[in-house]
Write a structure and sequence with these properties.
There is one protein chain. By secondary structure, the chain is mainly alpha-helical. It has a domain at 419-524: Alpha Horseshoe (Serine Threonine Protein Phosphatase 5, Tetratricopeptide repeat). The protein has helices at residues 10-19, 26-38, 45-53, 60-71, 78-90, 94-105, 114-127, 130-142, 149-162, 165-173, 180-192, 196-205, 211-224, 239-261, 268-281, 284-296, 303-315, 319-328, 334-346, 350-362, 369-381, 385-397, 405-417, 421-430, 437-450, 453-466, 471-483, 487-499; strands at residues 508-513, 516-521. A two-stranded antiparallel ribbon has the order 1-2. Helix 7 packs parallel to helix 9 and helix 19 runs antiparallel to helix 20. The longest helix has 23 residues, at 239-261. It is elongated, with a radius of gyration of 29 Å. It starts with 9 loop residues before the first helix and ends with a strand.
Amino acid sequence: MQVNITSLSRQKIMSIIHNSKQANQFHEILQIHAFLIKTSLQSNNFIITNLLRKFPVNVPENIRYARNVFDEMPSPDTFLWNTMIRAYLNTQNHVECLPLFIKLRRQENLELDSFSLSLVVQACGRSGFVKNGKTIHTQVVKLGFGCDLFVQTGLVEMYVKFGCVVFARKVFGEMKDPDLVSYNVLLAEYVRIREMGLARKVFDSMLIRDLVSWNTMIHGYASFVHMGMSASTVCDTEMAVELYDCNMSREALRLFHEMQLGKFLPDKITVVSVLSACGDLGALDMGKTVHKYIEKNQIEVDIQLGTSLVNMYAKCGDIDNASKVFNGMKKRDVSLWSAMIMGLANHGYGDAALGHFHTMISEGLKPNGITFIGVLSACSHIGLVDDGWKYFNSMHDVYGLTPKIKHYGCMVDILSRAGELDAARDVIRNMPFEPDAIIWRTLLGACKIFKNVELAEEATNEILTLEAHTHENYVLLSNIYSEAKKWDEAITFRSKMEDIRIHKVRGSSSIEVRRAVHDIVSGD
Protein backbone atom coordinates (compact mmCIF):
# COMPACT_ATOMS: atom_id res chain seq x y z
CA MET A 1 0.00 0.00 0.00
CA GLN A 2 1.51 3.29 -1.13
CA VAL A 3 0.64 6.02 1.36
CA ASN A 4 0.45 9.61 0.16
CA ILE A 5 1.04 11.61 3.35
CA THR A 6 2.40 14.89 2.09
CA SER A 7 -0.74 16.79 3.01
CA LEU A 8 -1.92 14.82 5.96
CA SER A 9 -2.73 16.51 9.23
CA ARG A 10 -1.45 15.28 12.56
CA GLN A 11 -4.84 13.68 13.23
CA LYS A 12 -4.74 11.81 9.96
CA ILE A 13 -1.22 10.61 10.71
CA MET A 14 -2.50 9.17 13.98
CA SER A 15 -5.33 7.50 12.08
CA ILE A 16 -2.91 5.83 9.67
CA ILE A 17 -0.67 4.72 12.53
CA HIS A 18 -3.70 3.23 14.26
CA ASN A 19 -4.85 1.36 11.14
CA SER A 20 -1.44 0.09 10.01
CA LYS A 21 -0.94 -3.68 10.23
CA GLN A 22 2.12 -4.93 12.08
CA ALA A 23 2.41 -8.21 10.23
CA ASN A 24 2.92 -7.01 6.65
CA GLN A 25 2.78 -3.20 6.62
CA PHE A 26 6.06 -2.29 8.30
CA HIS A 27 6.98 -0.26 5.21
CA GLU A 28 4.02 1.99 6.03
CA ILE A 29 5.51 2.70 9.45
CA LEU A 30 8.84 3.56 7.83
CA GLN A 31 7.04 5.90 5.43
CA ILE A 32 5.25 7.60 8.29
CA HIS A 33 8.49 7.96 10.23
CA ALA A 34 10.19 9.46 7.18
CA PHE A 35 7.39 12.00 6.88
CA LEU A 36 7.63 12.84 10.57
CA ILE A 37 11.32 13.62 10.13
CA LYS A 38 10.58 15.70 7.02
CA THR A 39 7.92 17.74 8.82
CA SER A 40 9.82 17.99 12.16
CA LEU A 41 7.18 15.92 13.96
CA GLN A 42 9.72 13.25 14.95
CA SER A 43 10.04 14.87 18.38
CA ASN A 44 6.33 14.59 19.19
CA ASN A 45 6.20 12.16 22.13
CA PHE A 46 2.57 11.23 21.61
CA ILE A 47 2.98 10.38 17.92
CA ILE A 48 6.27 8.50 18.41
CA THR A 49 4.80 6.51 21.32
CA ASN A 50 1.93 5.34 19.15
CA LEU A 51 4.31 4.66 16.26
CA LEU A 52 6.56 2.47 18.43
CA ARG A 53 3.56 0.50 19.65
CA LYS A 54 2.94 -0.52 16.04
CA PHE A 55 6.45 -1.78 15.39
CA PRO A 56 6.47 -5.57 14.63
CA VAL A 57 9.27 -6.08 17.15
CA ASN A 58 9.37 -9.85 16.65
CA VAL A 59 12.12 -9.18 14.10
CA PRO A 60 15.49 -8.22 15.68
CA GLU A 61 16.15 -5.53 13.06
CA ASN A 62 12.83 -3.89 13.88
CA ILE A 63 13.46 -3.67 17.62
CA ARG A 64 16.85 -2.11 16.86
CA TYR A 65 15.18 0.42 14.57
CA ALA A 66 12.61 1.17 17.27
CA ARG A 67 15.41 1.75 19.78
CA ASN A 68 17.15 4.12 17.37
CA VAL A 69 13.91 6.08 17.02
CA PHE A 70 13.60 6.22 20.80
CA ASP A 71 17.24 7.28 21.33
CA GLU A 72 16.78 10.19 18.93
CA MET A 73 13.95 11.64 21.02
CA PRO A 74 15.20 14.80 22.78
CA SER A 75 12.82 14.65 25.76
CA PRO A 76 10.93 11.34 25.93
CA ASP A 77 8.17 11.32 28.53
CA THR A 78 7.33 8.48 30.92
CA PHE A 79 4.81 6.96 28.49
CA LEU A 80 7.47 6.72 25.79
CA TRP A 81 10.01 5.18 28.18
CA ASN A 82 7.39 2.62 29.21
CA THR A 83 6.61 1.83 25.58
CA MET A 84 10.26 1.07 24.83
CA ILE A 85 10.67 -1.07 27.96
CA ARG A 86 7.51 -3.00 27.10
CA ALA A 87 8.80 -3.60 23.56
CA TYR A 88 11.87 -5.32 25.00
CA LEU A 89 9.71 -7.26 27.45
CA ASN A 90 7.44 -8.50 24.65
CA THR A 91 10.42 -9.69 22.62
CA GLN A 92 11.79 -11.68 25.58
CA ASN A 93 14.79 -9.34 25.65
CA HIS A 94 14.53 -8.95 29.40
CA VAL A 95 18.17 -8.00 29.90
CA GLU A 96 17.65 -4.69 28.09
CA CYS A 97 14.66 -3.74 30.26
CA LEU A 98 16.61 -3.14 33.48
CA PRO A 99 19.27 -0.71 32.09
CA LEU A 100 16.51 1.22 30.36
CA PHE A 101 14.55 1.42 33.60
CA ILE A 102 17.66 2.65 35.44
CA LYS A 103 18.08 5.42 32.86
CA LEU A 104 14.44 6.37 33.35
CA ARG A 105 14.97 6.41 37.11
CA ARG A 106 17.77 8.96 36.64
CA GLN A 107 15.59 11.41 34.72
CA GLU A 108 15.12 14.23 37.22
CA ASN A 109 12.17 15.76 35.42
CA LEU A 110 10.21 12.50 35.12
CA GLU A 111 8.30 10.45 37.67
CA LEU A 112 7.85 6.72 37.61
CA ASP A 113 4.34 5.36 37.40
CA SER A 114 2.87 1.98 38.29
CA PHE A 115 3.26 0.78 34.69
CA SER A 116 7.03 1.49 34.75
CA LEU A 117 7.47 -0.48 37.95
CA SER A 118 5.23 -3.33 36.81
CA LEU A 119 7.23 -3.73 33.59
CA VAL A 120 10.62 -3.86 35.29
CA VAL A 121 9.31 -6.24 37.95
CA GLN A 122 8.11 -8.59 35.22
CA ALA A 123 11.47 -8.30 33.47
CA CYS A 124 13.33 -9.23 36.66
CA GLY A 125 11.08 -12.24 37.20
CA ARG A 126 11.41 -13.55 33.67
CA SER A 127 15.18 -13.05 33.57
CA GLY A 128 15.84 -14.53 37.01
CA PHE A 129 17.40 -11.38 38.44
CA VAL A 130 16.54 -12.19 42.07
CA LYS A 131 18.74 -9.52 43.70
CA ASN A 132 17.57 -6.82 41.30
CA GLY A 133 13.96 -7.88 41.74
CA LYS A 134 14.14 -7.51 45.51
CA THR A 135 15.84 -4.12 45.10
CA ILE A 136 13.03 -2.99 42.80
CA HIS A 137 10.51 -4.19 45.38
CA THR A 138 12.19 -1.96 47.95
CA GLN A 139 11.90 0.99 45.56
CA VAL A 140 8.24 0.15 45.00
CA VAL A 141 7.56 0.53 48.71
CA LYS A 142 9.67 3.70 49.05
CA LEU A 143 7.92 5.35 46.11
CA GLY A 144 4.50 4.63 47.60
CA PHE A 145 3.39 1.94 45.14
CA GLY A 146 3.40 -0.91 47.66
CA CYS A 147 -0.39 -1.10 47.61
CA ASP A 148 -0.81 -0.56 43.88
CA LEU A 149 -2.71 -3.57 42.54
CA PHE A 150 -1.00 -3.42 39.15
CA VAL A 151 2.48 -3.48 40.69
CA GLN A 152 1.54 -6.07 43.31
CA THR A 153 0.35 -8.42 40.58
CA GLY A 154 3.73 -8.08 38.87
CA LEU A 155 5.51 -8.78 42.16
CA VAL A 156 3.46 -11.93 42.71
CA GLU A 157 4.46 -13.21 39.28
CA MET A 158 8.10 -12.24 39.88
CA TYR A 159 8.44 -14.03 43.22
CA VAL A 160 6.82 -17.24 41.97
CA LYS A 161 9.22 -17.24 39.01
CA PHE A 162 12.06 -16.84 41.50
CA GLY A 163 10.73 -19.85 43.40
CA CYS A 164 9.98 -17.62 46.40
CA VAL A 165 6.45 -18.91 46.88
CA VAL A 166 6.22 -17.62 50.46
CA PHE A 167 7.00 -14.05 49.33
CA ALA A 168 4.50 -14.35 46.49
CA ARG A 169 1.76 -15.43 48.88
CA LYS A 170 2.68 -12.62 51.28
CA VAL A 171 2.37 -9.99 48.52
CA PHE A 172 -0.89 -11.51 47.36
CA GLY A 173 -2.21 -11.53 50.93
CA GLU A 174 -1.43 -7.81 51.24
CA MET A 175 -3.69 -6.95 48.29
CA LYS A 176 -6.75 -5.11 49.58
CA ASP A 177 -8.98 -6.20 46.75
CA PRO A 178 -7.27 -8.58 44.31
CA ASP A 179 -8.99 -8.63 40.95
CA LEU A 180 -9.50 -11.50 38.52
CA VAL A 181 -6.24 -10.73 36.73
CA SER A 182 -4.29 -11.00 40.01
CA TYR A 183 -5.89 -14.34 40.82
CA ASN A 184 -5.23 -15.68 37.34
CA VAL A 185 -1.57 -14.61 37.43
CA LEU A 186 -0.99 -16.42 40.74
CA LEU A 187 -2.95 -19.41 39.47
CA ALA A 188 -0.92 -19.62 36.25
CA GLU A 189 2.39 -19.33 38.08
CA TYR A 190 1.49 -22.06 40.59
CA VAL A 191 0.50 -24.32 37.72
CA ARG A 192 3.71 -23.49 35.86
CA ILE A 193 5.85 -24.62 38.81
CA ARG A 194 3.58 -27.68 39.23
CA GLU A 195 2.22 -26.66 42.65
CA MET A 196 -1.25 -27.97 41.88
CA GLY A 197 -2.24 -28.13 45.54
CA LEU A 198 -1.58 -24.41 45.99
CA ALA A 199 -3.21 -23.66 42.66
CA ARG A 200 -6.34 -25.52 43.72
CA LYS A 201 -6.55 -23.53 46.97
CA VAL A 202 -6.38 -20.29 45.01
CA PHE A 203 -8.92 -21.55 42.49
CA ASP A 204 -11.38 -22.61 45.19
CA SER A 205 -11.05 -19.23 46.92
CA MET A 206 -11.99 -17.28 43.78
CA LEU A 207 -15.44 -15.74 43.95
CA ILE A 208 -15.39 -15.06 40.21
CA ARG A 209 -13.75 -17.23 37.55
CA ASP A 210 -13.42 -16.71 33.84
CA LEU A 211 -12.47 -18.96 30.95
CA VAL A 212 -8.79 -18.30 31.66
CA SER A 213 -9.19 -19.57 35.23
CA TRP A 214 -10.84 -22.81 34.14
CA ASN A 215 -8.39 -23.38 31.27
CA THR A 216 -5.42 -22.83 33.55
CA MET A 217 -6.57 -25.46 36.05
CA ILE A 218 -7.72 -28.04 33.52
CA HIS A 219 -4.53 -27.65 31.51
CA GLY A 220 -2.50 -27.84 34.71
CA TYR A 221 -4.02 -31.15 35.78
CA ALA A 222 -3.87 -32.61 32.28
CA SER A 223 -0.26 -31.60 31.59
CA PHE A 224 0.95 -32.69 35.04
CA VAL A 225 0.78 -36.33 34.00
CA HIS A 226 4.12 -38.09 33.63
CA MET A 227 5.13 -37.84 29.99
CA GLY A 228 6.77 -40.93 28.58
CA MET A 229 6.65 -43.60 25.93
CA SER A 230 3.59 -45.67 26.65
CA ALA A 231 3.10 -49.34 25.90
CA SER A 232 6.79 -50.16 25.98
CA THR A 233 8.91 -51.87 28.57
CA VAL A 234 11.18 -48.87 28.31
CA CYS A 235 8.46 -46.66 29.72
CA ASP A 236 7.28 -48.59 32.75
CA THR A 237 6.86 -46.28 35.75
CA GLU A 238 6.31 -46.82 39.42
CA MET A 239 2.77 -47.77 40.42
CA ALA A 240 2.51 -44.84 42.81
CA VAL A 241 3.40 -42.41 40.04
CA GLU A 242 0.83 -43.99 37.72
CA LEU A 243 -1.90 -43.72 40.32
CA TYR A 244 -1.00 -40.10 41.05
CA ASP A 245 -1.05 -39.28 37.35
CA CYS A 246 -4.46 -40.92 37.00
CA ASN A 247 -5.78 -38.80 39.85
CA MET A 248 -4.48 -35.67 38.11
CA SER A 249 -6.15 -36.59 34.82
CA ARG A 250 -9.36 -37.51 36.61
CA GLU A 251 -9.36 -34.13 38.35
CA ALA A 252 -9.00 -32.43 34.96
CA LEU A 253 -12.12 -34.23 33.72
CA ARG A 254 -14.03 -33.40 36.89
CA LEU A 255 -13.21 -29.71 36.51
CA PHE A 256 -14.27 -29.87 32.87
CA HIS A 257 -17.66 -31.17 34.00
CA GLU A 258 -17.95 -28.41 36.62
CA MET A 259 -16.99 -25.85 34.01
CA GLN A 260 -19.86 -26.92 31.79
CA LEU A 261 -22.28 -26.83 34.71
CA GLY A 262 -21.11 -23.27 35.34
CA LYS A 263 -22.28 -22.32 31.84
CA PHE A 264 -18.74 -21.72 30.57
CA LEU A 265 -18.31 -22.78 26.96
CA PRO A 266 -15.04 -24.70 26.56
CA ASP A 267 -12.77 -23.37 23.83
CA LYS A 268 -10.07 -25.11 21.82
CA ILE A 269 -7.51 -24.70 24.62
CA THR A 270 -9.85 -26.49 27.03
CA VAL A 271 -10.72 -29.39 24.75
CA VAL A 272 -7.05 -30.00 23.90
CA SER A 273 -6.29 -30.40 27.61
CA VAL A 274 -9.37 -32.55 28.22
CA LEU A 275 -8.52 -34.83 25.31
CA SER A 276 -5.05 -35.28 26.81
CA ALA A 277 -6.60 -36.31 30.13
CA CYS A 278 -8.97 -38.72 28.37
CA GLY A 279 -6.05 -40.35 26.61
CA ASP A 280 -4.05 -40.73 29.83
CA LEU A 281 -7.03 -42.34 31.58
CA GLY A 282 -8.23 -44.40 28.65
CA ALA A 283 -11.59 -42.64 28.96
CA LEU A 284 -12.72 -43.37 25.40
CA ASP A 285 -16.42 -42.56 25.86
CA MET A 286 -15.57 -39.20 27.39
CA GLY A 287 -13.13 -38.55 24.57
CA LYS A 288 -15.80 -39.32 21.98
CA THR A 289 -18.18 -36.95 23.76
CA VAL A 290 -15.60 -34.18 23.54
CA HIS A 291 -15.11 -34.98 19.86
CA LYS A 292 -18.86 -34.63 19.29
CA TYR A 293 -18.78 -31.32 21.17
CA ILE A 294 -16.08 -30.12 18.77
CA GLU A 295 -18.17 -31.10 15.76
CA LYS A 296 -21.42 -29.70 17.17
CA ASN A 297 -19.88 -26.32 17.99
CA GLN A 298 -17.91 -26.23 14.75
CA ILE A 299 -14.58 -25.75 16.49
CA GLU A 300 -11.91 -25.69 13.85
CA VAL A 301 -9.85 -28.87 13.94
CA ASP A 302 -6.43 -27.42 13.25
CA ILE A 303 -3.20 -29.39 13.49
CA GLN A 304 -2.95 -28.98 17.26
CA LEU A 305 -6.49 -30.18 17.90
CA GLY A 306 -6.21 -32.92 15.28
CA THR A 307 -3.04 -34.19 16.94
CA SER A 308 -4.81 -34.22 20.31
CA LEU A 309 -7.68 -36.26 18.86
CA VAL A 310 -5.31 -38.75 17.25
CA ASN A 311 -3.36 -39.08 20.49
CA MET A 312 -6.53 -39.57 22.53
CA TYR A 313 -7.96 -42.28 20.27
CA ALA A 314 -4.60 -44.03 19.95
CA LYS A 315 -3.97 -44.06 23.71
CA CYS A 316 -7.49 -45.41 24.25
CA GLY A 317 -6.79 -48.21 21.73
CA ASP A 318 -9.24 -46.97 19.10
CA ILE A 319 -6.89 -47.00 16.13
CA ASP A 320 -9.77 -46.90 13.63
CA ASN A 321 -11.00 -43.53 14.85
CA ALA A 322 -7.43 -42.28 15.21
CA SER A 323 -6.90 -43.13 11.54
CA LYS A 324 -10.18 -41.46 10.53
CA VAL A 325 -9.17 -38.22 12.19
CA PHE A 326 -5.67 -38.45 10.72
CA ASN A 327 -6.89 -39.19 7.20
CA GLY A 328 -9.44 -36.38 7.42
CA MET A 329 -6.83 -33.73 8.13
CA LYS A 330 -6.07 -31.50 5.16
CA LYS A 331 -2.77 -30.35 6.61
CA ARG A 332 -0.35 -32.50 8.58
CA ASP A 333 2.83 -31.55 10.35
CA VAL A 334 5.49 -33.72 11.96
CA SER A 335 3.62 -33.74 15.31
CA LEU A 336 0.47 -35.17 13.72
CA TRP A 337 2.42 -37.77 11.77
CA SER A 338 4.38 -38.71 14.89
CA ALA A 339 1.17 -39.15 16.91
CA MET A 340 -0.21 -41.54 14.31
CA ILE A 341 3.06 -43.45 13.97
CA MET A 342 3.32 -43.80 17.74
CA GLY A 343 -0.28 -44.97 18.03
CA LEU A 344 0.14 -47.62 15.35
CA ALA A 345 3.44 -48.81 16.80
CA ASN A 346 2.16 -49.12 20.36
CA HIS A 347 -0.84 -51.20 19.30
CA GLY A 348 1.04 -53.75 17.23
CA TYR A 349 0.70 -52.20 13.78
CA GLY A 350 4.43 -51.97 13.25
CA ASP A 351 4.38 -52.36 9.48
CA ALA A 352 1.72 -49.65 9.14
CA ALA A 353 3.71 -47.36 11.44
CA LEU A 354 6.82 -47.73 9.30
CA GLY A 355 4.73 -47.23 6.16
CA HIS A 356 3.42 -43.94 7.57
CA PHE A 357 6.98 -42.91 8.37
CA HIS A 358 8.14 -43.41 4.80
CA THR A 359 5.07 -41.60 3.46
CA MET A 360 5.82 -38.68 5.73
CA ILE A 361 9.42 -38.56 4.47
CA SER A 362 8.25 -38.72 0.85
CA GLU A 363 6.08 -35.66 1.49
CA GLY A 364 9.16 -33.68 2.46
CA LEU A 365 8.68 -33.52 6.24
CA LYS A 366 11.67 -33.92 8.52
CA PRO A 367 11.12 -36.32 11.45
CA ASN A 368 11.90 -35.30 15.01
CA GLY A 369 12.89 -37.21 18.12
CA ILE A 370 9.30 -38.22 18.93
CA THR A 371 8.86 -39.60 15.42
CA PHE A 372 11.83 -41.90 15.92
CA ILE A 373 10.52 -43.13 19.26
CA GLY A 374 7.46 -44.36 17.34
CA VAL A 375 9.59 -45.82 14.55
CA LEU A 376 11.90 -47.67 16.95
CA SER A 377 8.92 -48.89 18.98
CA ALA A 378 7.47 -50.31 15.77
CA CYS A 379 10.71 -52.14 15.07
CA SER A 380 10.68 -53.50 18.61
CA HIS A 381 7.14 -54.87 18.39
CA ILE A 382 7.71 -56.68 15.08
CA GLY A 383 11.26 -57.81 15.83
CA LEU A 384 13.20 -55.78 13.24
CA VAL A 385 16.65 -55.61 14.80
CA ASP A 386 18.61 -54.64 11.68
CA ASP A 387 16.02 -52.09 10.64
CA GLY A 388 16.03 -50.72 14.17
CA TRP A 389 19.76 -50.05 13.93
CA LYS A 390 19.29 -48.52 10.48
CA TYR A 391 16.65 -46.08 11.71
CA PHE A 392 18.62 -45.32 14.87
CA ASN A 393 21.80 -44.50 12.93
CA SER A 394 19.86 -42.43 10.41
CA MET A 395 18.82 -40.03 13.17
CA HIS A 396 22.28 -38.49 13.19
CA ASP A 397 23.66 -39.51 9.79
CA VAL A 398 20.62 -38.50 7.69
CA TYR A 399 18.51 -36.10 9.73
CA GLY A 400 21.05 -34.42 11.98
CA LEU A 401 19.29 -35.45 15.19
CA THR A 402 21.15 -36.41 18.35
CA PRO A 403 19.63 -39.54 19.92
CA LYS A 404 18.38 -39.03 23.47
CA ILE A 405 18.32 -41.53 26.29
CA LYS A 406 14.82 -42.70 25.26
CA HIS A 407 16.10 -43.62 21.80
CA TYR A 408 18.92 -45.66 23.33
CA GLY A 409 16.31 -47.19 25.60
CA CYS A 410 14.30 -48.19 22.53
CA MET A 411 17.37 -49.92 21.07
CA VAL A 412 17.86 -51.77 24.34
CA ASP A 413 14.22 -52.83 24.12
CA ILE A 414 14.59 -53.99 20.49
CA LEU A 415 17.66 -56.09 21.29
CA SER A 416 16.20 -57.41 24.55
CA ARG A 417 12.99 -58.58 22.89
CA ALA A 418 15.06 -60.33 20.22
CA GLY A 419 17.11 -62.14 22.85
CA GLU A 420 20.32 -60.29 22.01
CA LEU A 421 21.04 -59.55 25.65
CA ASP A 422 24.79 -59.08 25.37
CA ALA A 423 24.28 -56.55 22.58
CA ALA A 424 21.68 -54.77 24.70
CA ARG A 425 24.15 -54.59 27.60
CA ASP A 426 26.81 -53.17 25.25
CA VAL A 427 24.41 -50.42 24.18
CA ILE A 428 23.82 -49.54 27.84
CA ARG A 429 27.53 -49.47 28.62
CA ASN A 430 28.47 -47.37 25.58
CA MET A 431 25.62 -44.85 25.56
CA PRO A 432 26.69 -41.23 26.20
CA PHE A 433 24.36 -40.99 29.22
CA GLU A 434 24.20 -42.55 32.62
CA PRO A 435 21.57 -45.30 32.18
CA ASP A 436 18.48 -44.92 34.32
CA ALA A 437 16.58 -47.61 36.17
CA ILE A 438 14.02 -47.95 33.36
CA ILE A 439 16.66 -49.06 30.85
CA TRP A 440 18.23 -51.53 33.28
CA ARG A 441 14.76 -52.87 34.13
CA THR A 442 14.10 -53.43 30.42
CA LEU A 443 17.19 -55.65 30.30
CA LEU A 444 16.21 -57.34 33.56
CA GLY A 445 12.78 -58.20 32.18
CA ALA A 446 14.40 -59.80 29.12
CA CYS A 447 16.74 -61.76 31.39
CA LYS A 448 13.68 -63.33 33.01
CA ILE A 449 12.27 -64.35 29.63
CA PHE A 450 15.55 -65.76 28.34
CA LYS A 451 16.67 -67.10 31.74
CA ASN A 452 20.01 -65.27 31.88
CA VAL A 453 20.71 -65.26 35.60
CA GLU A 454 24.22 -63.79 35.44
CA LEU A 455 23.15 -60.73 33.45
CA ALA A 456 20.03 -60.39 35.62
CA GLU A 457 22.24 -60.08 38.71
CA GLU A 458 24.28 -57.34 37.05
CA ALA A 459 21.17 -55.45 35.97
CA THR A 460 19.63 -55.77 39.44
CA ASN A 461 22.73 -54.45 41.17
CA GLU A 462 22.68 -51.42 38.88
CA ILE A 463 18.97 -50.86 39.46
CA LEU A 464 19.27 -51.11 43.24
CA THR A 465 21.88 -48.37 43.28
CA LEU A 466 19.28 -46.15 41.60
CA GLU A 467 16.10 -47.45 43.22
CA ALA A 468 16.87 -49.20 46.48
CA HIS A 469 13.26 -49.37 47.67
CA THR A 470 11.27 -50.37 44.60
CA HIS A 471 9.58 -53.72 45.20
CA GLU A 472 9.41 -54.92 41.60
CA ASN A 473 13.21 -55.03 41.24
CA TYR A 474 13.50 -57.49 44.13
CA VAL A 475 10.51 -59.52 43.02
CA LEU A 476 11.74 -59.80 39.44
CA LEU A 477 15.19 -61.10 40.37
CA SER A 478 13.68 -63.40 43.00
CA ASN A 479 11.44 -64.92 40.31
CA ILE A 480 14.44 -65.33 38.00
CA TYR A 481 16.28 -67.24 40.72
CA SER A 482 13.21 -69.41 41.32
CA GLU A 483 12.82 -70.30 37.65
CA ALA A 484 16.53 -71.17 37.53
CA LYS A 485 15.93 -73.34 40.61
CA LYS A 486 18.34 -71.27 42.68
CA TRP A 487 16.13 -71.49 45.73
CA ASP A 488 18.62 -70.18 48.27
CA GLU A 489 19.20 -66.98 46.30
CA ALA A 490 15.45 -66.51 45.82
CA ILE A 491 14.79 -66.90 49.55
CA THR A 492 17.65 -64.52 50.36
CA PHE A 493 16.18 -61.82 48.16
CA ARG A 494 12.69 -62.26 49.62
CA SER A 495 14.16 -62.00 53.11
CA LYS A 496 16.04 -58.87 52.13
CA MET A 497 12.74 -57.32 51.09
CA GLU A 498 11.30 -58.04 54.52
CA ASP A 499 14.40 -56.77 56.30
CA ILE A 500 14.19 -53.35 54.67
CA ARG A 501 10.37 -53.38 54.87
CA ILE A 502 9.60 -53.41 51.18
CA HIS A 503 6.11 -54.62 50.35
CA LYS A 504 4.78 -55.52 46.96
CA VAL A 505 2.35 -52.93 45.63
CA ARG A 506 -0.83 -54.49 44.32
CA GLY A 507 -1.41 -54.07 40.61
CA SER A 508 -4.20 -51.83 39.42
CA SER A 509 -5.93 -50.71 36.29
CA SER A 510 -8.69 -48.29 35.32
CA ILE A 511 -12.06 -48.90 33.75
CA GLU A 512 -14.52 -46.39 32.32
CA VAL A 513 -18.19 -46.91 33.19
CA ARG A 514 -20.76 -44.33 32.06
CA ARG A 515 -18.05 -41.75 31.44
CA ALA A 516 -16.65 -42.20 34.96
CA VAL A 517 -13.19 -43.74 35.45
CA HIS A 518 -12.75 -46.21 38.32
CA ASP A 519 -9.58 -47.81 39.68
CA ILE A 520 -9.59 -51.61 40.02
CA VAL A 521 -6.92 -52.92 42.37
CA SER A 522 -5.76 -56.54 42.43
CA GLY A 523 -7.90 -58.40 44.97
CA ASP A 524 -10.96 -56.14 44.63
